[in-house]
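Figure 2 data, in text form.
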Amino acid sequence: MAESHGTPQGQKTGARTESEGGHGGGFPPFDSSTFASQLLSLVIAFVALYVIVSRIALPRVSSVIDARQNVIEGDLAQAQKLKDASDAALKAYENELAAARARAQAISAETREKLSAASEVERKKLEERLSHKLAEAEKTIAATREAAMRNVRGIAAEAAAAIVERLTGVLPDGKSVDSAVDASLKG
C-alpha cells in the first residue's frame, strides 16, 4: 500500500492521497503556510495592473473621450453656425417677402390710381360729348318746336279763316286772322 502523508496507518480519512489522484493538504488558498506568498503575488499583480491601467489604458481612454468631446463640440458649433445661417436665410426670406408684398401693394395702388385717373378722363370726355350731343339735341328740338309752332300758327290761321268763311261766307283779311291767332296762342 501507498504511504499516506500526515495520517496514521490504519486510519481512513475522507481525503485522497497523491497516488490516488488527490493532492496533499487542504485547499491551497486557505493554506496558512502560503498566505505570505499569496499576498505578495496579489500586491505585485495589483501594482502591475494599476500601472498598466493608469499609464496605458486610462490615457488612451482619456484621449478617446477628449477626441470625442472635441468632435461633439465641433459638431455643436457647426450645428449652431448652420442654425444661425438658416435663421439669417429665413429672416432674409421674410424681409424679401415683405418687400415683395409692399412692392405688389404699391404697384396695385399705382395701377388703381392710373386706372381711376384714366377712367375719370374718359368719364369727363364722355360727359362732354353727351352734354354737347344734349345741347345739339335741345337745339334741334327747339328748332323743330319753333318750326312746328310756325306751322301750327299757319295752320291755325288757315283753319280760322276757313271757319270764318264758312260761318259768315266772307273771307276775312289775313291781318285780322293773324292778330286773332296770335292773341289766342299767347293767352
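Caption note: The chain has one domain: 31-186.
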